[in-house]
Amino acid sequence: KPVLEKEFNWTETDYAYIIMAFTAAYAIGLISFGWLIDKWGTKLGYSISITVWSVAGMLHAVVRSVFGFSLARVGLALGEAGNFPAAMKAVSEWFPKKERALATGIFNSGTSIGVVLALLVTPWILTNYGWHEVFWITGSFGFIWLIFWLFFYDIPAKQKRLTVQEYKYITEGQDEENADEQKIAVKWKKLFTFKQTWAFIVGKGLIDPIFWFFLFWLPSYFASTFSLDLTKPSVELMIVYGATTVGSIGGGFFSSWLIKRGMPVLKARKGALLLFALLEISIILAQFATNVWMAVALISVAVAVHQAWATNVFTMASDMFPKEVVSSVVGIGGMAGAVGGILFPILVGVLLDKYKAIGNLEAGYNILFTVCGFTYLFALTIIHLLTRKNQHVNLNQLR
């Protein structure tokens, strides 16, 4: 951001509009890929997603204006949108319920690992080559992953590397009606009639914008508040984003552990969400940080807890719905999160521009941290009210 805002002469509000363009396209892509992946299958759907994602990432290198950069972000968002619907469907296909949260936490930690690697790779490419090469090189990485995906992945019923015992273990830990790989026509209108769908929508719609804020504005926060040089590898940011890996895996492990100890599945998920919502309030203490390492510690806890929360919300989709429609539900919830991601940057951009104008940008960030801290408890309250009866949607209800 600091490099490109000089290149294109954009303001904080311009940057907010760029993020809005990305998240608007992401919302459209999520609901589209959610439907396509349930219709075409995980292997083909994910392959298309990664191809579009990687090509669009590389095309950032050819833009010459704010408008062009926004268009590149739109293409990137459309491709990237297939990631979580496909990944969650794959988890629902391959794991029994008691292991899904941990599996989700492990794959979700890849998001964090990627950011940490970017903090190492991007400054090096930027220093030795230029910002154009940053996009050419990082965008091409997706094609390496695609080769392995096409070679190794298939659903359990078609996977030749799977033993009879392994297949039995997977399917016995899933819902009995989902033991075979049958396909159904997803009735979108019907999905919106279930409280479970709306619980997932709330969990994503209110909380995803906060992670977008952490992802897009934290580097700028550290640069403006603590004079961090973002043209060099940043240990501070690597620690912050590295903490999200711990949160993803730890959050998944915690609710899986509760289930293995005999707690009902949905109760274990909501118990984990309550703990993480209470811990997230600690982010409001960031406004009292007097040095960069105190801020790193507080924000690291906050982003780790966020990922722990996100892991369990994602897993709730596969808990409450049959795997045949998990991708669609994740797409719908993801779209809600993206819509929130469109609206929240407007507040962020306007607020930060206002406080920057009066020479007190830190105060703007402090207000945002306070809002972020209390949103999780609010979201959990709504989720709990919508899922009190603990009902699982079955295939017959969707026909």
Could you write a compact summary of the structure shown?
The protein has 399 residues and is mainly α. The protein has helices at 2-8, 12-40, 42-59, 66-80, 83-94, 97-128, 131-152, 164-172, 188-191, 195-205, 208-226, 235-260, 265-280, 292-320, 326-357, 361-386. Mean pLDDT is 84; it is low at 177-182.
What is the number of helical segments per DSSP (H or I, 4+ residues)? 16
- Overall pLDDT: 84
The structure class reads: mainly alpha
The appropriate CATH architecture is Up-down Bundle
Here the CATH topology equals Growth Hormone, Chain: A
Q: Could you say which overall geometry the principal axes of the C-alpha atoms support?
A: globular
* Low-pLDDT ranges: 177-182
Tell me what portion of residues adopts beta-strand conformation.
Answer: under 5%
Question: Helix-strand pattern, N to C?
Answer: HHHHHHHHHHHHHHHH
Number of separate strands: 0
Rounded to an integer, what's the Rg over CA atoms? 21 Å
Account of the 3D structure:
- The chain is mainly alpha-helical and 399 residues long.
- The chain has one domain: MFS general substrate transporter like domains (Growth Hormone, Chain: A, Up-down Bundle).
- The chain has helices at 2-8, 12-40, 42-59, 66-80, 83-94, 97-128, 131-152, 164-172, 188-191, 195-205, 208-226, 235-260, 265-280, 292-320, 326-357, 361-386.
- Helix 5 (83-94) runs antiparallel to helix 6 (97-128) and helix 11 (208-226) packs antiparallel against helix 14.
- The chain is globular and about 60 Å long.
- The termini are far apart.
- Mean pLDDT is 84; it is low at 177-182.
